[in-house]
């Protein structure tokens, strides 16, 4: 099929209406009047015609002055300062009397008083009465009144210097005038467009296939309008979940599908559950005020299980199951201190000491944690952590490595995994797990290990417990293709519309 014929058959009804009107250079408003189409329909038709090389479209912008809601009312009635002066012509009044007589709002009263005092028209005496001093400045029309009687909209560029000063004064007041940026579009026909017009655009084509056309068979022997796959179309932003929230829900669903039970706990935690029950010594650097956020009120908790506190205290001071402990004097008062949860593992001792614990059992938590930190591209003061444990008789370190490899496949989508020695005060042995990402190389997914008996025995658990924790935000960054951790929580609408969602 000849190119000219293809163009004729590809024209949309809107294009067929607009193209014949382009004799010379035409603006949007002219085309709207002549075609009977809406502004949006004309712009769309010009965009399509321009994409096909039939017309040349040029856009320019200009500033236009329009009356706002109060401006329309003041042009119809009168300015507040004029109504204020009219109310005073009968004599001195209190401000309340002026308000009642003029019907002005409190805001309009304040503006009127300020303007008229600067002009020297009124004064407020010691008796708190408002009087007209001289009517000279308001005996005729005010410049602002003359301005409001103009025919709007006005081109900003058409105003003189004095009118621009008046406009600036009105702009400083609420809802009188506004300056809008208007984008103008002007179009002219190109040689190819003229050729298409000469060939004729009044062709019998079917623009839309409907059930009636199919049933009646009226489509037979007719041409269908060609679909232009290169044509620009309006961007559509469908509703969707926030990218990081959706990723977290995907991780949660995967863990649930593996048979893990979800755990949860309070954000405001005690040092007991957050650190002491994990066999972290009270002199450990993680207790430093520069890492944990301490709560001022209430400073201490009164609902800790005292029997369990005594067992944990004994483990710290003297050890358990053959251990010598940390060999220091455990501060019972300090263990009652409130902090914002610094790690997800604070939930584990709550469940391990609970009568609802199932052995064997698999548990996980996905919670928000808080630590003092300098916020930058890789650090936040509050963050998500995902961790958990498996408790079962006979479970060992080989089971833990198998579980870590499973997580690497499921969450990092890779079989390349490294497990290297690490240190955590509540696990022994301890290990860190790394996964190789095809673009970012080796990244640390998190820590793991077997809970120490000094931690589990005071909680009443004799079976071995393998535990793990995943740096979910770092994982989310490379899954979503982000290089700044702050983008996980971005409020930028344009970014939210374009970011990858997994």
Keywords for this entry:
about 20% strand; 3 domains; BirA Bifunctional Protein, domain 2; alpha+beta; 4-stranded antiparallel beta sheet; Arc Repressor Mutant, subunit A; about 500 residues; flat; single chain
Q: What can you tell me about this protein's structure?
A:
By secondary structure, the chain is an alpha+beta fold. The protein folds into 3 domains: 3-60 and 182-224, Arc Repressor Mutant, subunit A; 69-178, Orthogonal Bundle (Arc Repressor Mutant, subunit A), CATH 1.10.10.10; 246-267 and 341-498, 2-Layer Sandwich (BirA Bifunctional Protein, domain 2), CATH 3.30.930.10. Helices cover 36% and strands 21% of the residues. The protein contains 21 helices and 18 strands. It has helices spanning 3-10, 13-18, 28-35, 39-51, 69-76, 80-88, 95-102, 106-118, 143-148, 161-171, 191-199, 211-216, 243-257, 271-274, 306-318, 332-335, 348-352, 397-412, 453-456, 472-480, 493-498, and strands at residues 26-27, 55-67, 93-94, 122-124, 129-132, 154-155, 177-189, 205-206, 223-224, 261-263, 268-270, 338-340, 361-370, 382-391, 417-421, 427-437, 441-451, 465-470. A 7-stranded mixed sheet has the order 10-13-14-18-17-16-15. β15 and β16 (427-437) form a beta hairpin. The longest helix is centred in the C-terminal third of the chain and has 16 residues, at 397-412. The protein starts with a helix and ends with a helix.
């Amino acid at each position: 099929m000849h190119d000219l014929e293809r163009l004729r058959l590809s024209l949309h009804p809107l294009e067929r209406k607009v193209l014949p009107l382009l004799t010379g250079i035409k603006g949007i408003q002219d085309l709207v009047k002549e075609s009977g189409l809406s502004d949006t329909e004309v712009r769309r038709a010009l965009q399509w015609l321009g994409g096909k090389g039939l017309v040349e479209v040029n856009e320019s912008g200009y500033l236009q002055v329009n009356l706002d809601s109060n401006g329309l009312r003041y042009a119809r009635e009168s300015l507040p300062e004029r109504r204020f002066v009219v109310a005073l012509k009968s004599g001195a009044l209190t401000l309340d009397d002026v308000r009642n007589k003029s019907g002005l709002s409190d805001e309009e009263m304040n503006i009127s008083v300020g303007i008229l005092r600067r002009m020297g028209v009124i004064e407020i005496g010691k008796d708190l009465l408002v009087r007209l001093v001289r009517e000279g400045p308001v005996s005729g029309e005010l410049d602002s009144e003359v301005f409001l009687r103009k025919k709007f909209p006005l081109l900003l560029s058409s105003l003189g210097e004095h009118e621009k000063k008046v406009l600036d004064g009105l702009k400083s007041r609420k809802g009188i005038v506004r300056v809008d940026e208007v984008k103008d579009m002007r179009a002219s026909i190109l040689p190819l467009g003229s050729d298409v017009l000469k060939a004729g655009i009044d062709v019998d084509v079917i623009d839309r296939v409907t059930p009636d056309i199919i049933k009646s068979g009226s489509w037979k022997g007719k041409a269908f309008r060609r679909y232009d796959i290169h044509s620009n179309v309006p961007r559509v932003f469908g509703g969707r979940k926030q990218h990081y929230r959706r990723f977290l829900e995907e991780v949660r669903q995967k863990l649930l599908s593996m048979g893990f039970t979800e755990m949860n706990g309070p954000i405001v935690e005690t040092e007991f559950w957050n650190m002491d029950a994990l066999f972290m010594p009270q002199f450990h650097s993680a207790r430093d005020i520069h890492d944990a956020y301490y709560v001022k009120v209430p400073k201490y908790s009164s609902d800790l299980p005292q029997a369990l506190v005594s067992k944990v205290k004994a483990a710290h001071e003297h050890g358990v199951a053959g251990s010598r402990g940390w060999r220091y004097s455990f501060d019972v008062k300090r263990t009652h201190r409130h902090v914002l949860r610094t790690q997800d593992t604070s939930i584990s001792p709550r469940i391990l000491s609970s009568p609802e614990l199932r052995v064997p059992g698999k548990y996980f938590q996905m919670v928000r944690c808080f630590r003092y930190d300098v916020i930058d591209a890789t650090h936040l003061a509050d963050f998500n952590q995902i961790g958990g444990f498996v408790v079962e008789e006979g479970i060992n370190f080989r089971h833990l490595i198998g579980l870590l490899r499973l997580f690497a496949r499921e969450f990092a989508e890779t079989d390349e995994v490294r497990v290297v020695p690490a240190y955590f005060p509540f696990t022994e042995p301890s290990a860190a797990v790394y996964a190789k990402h095809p673009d970012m190389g080796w990244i640390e997914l998190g820590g793991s290990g077997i809970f120490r008996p000094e931690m589990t025995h005071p909680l009443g658990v004799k079976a071995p417990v393998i535990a793990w924790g995943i740096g979910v935000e770092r994982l989310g960054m490379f899954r979503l293709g982000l290089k700044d951790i702050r983008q996980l929580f971005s409020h930028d609408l344009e970014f939210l519309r374009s970011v990858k969602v997994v």
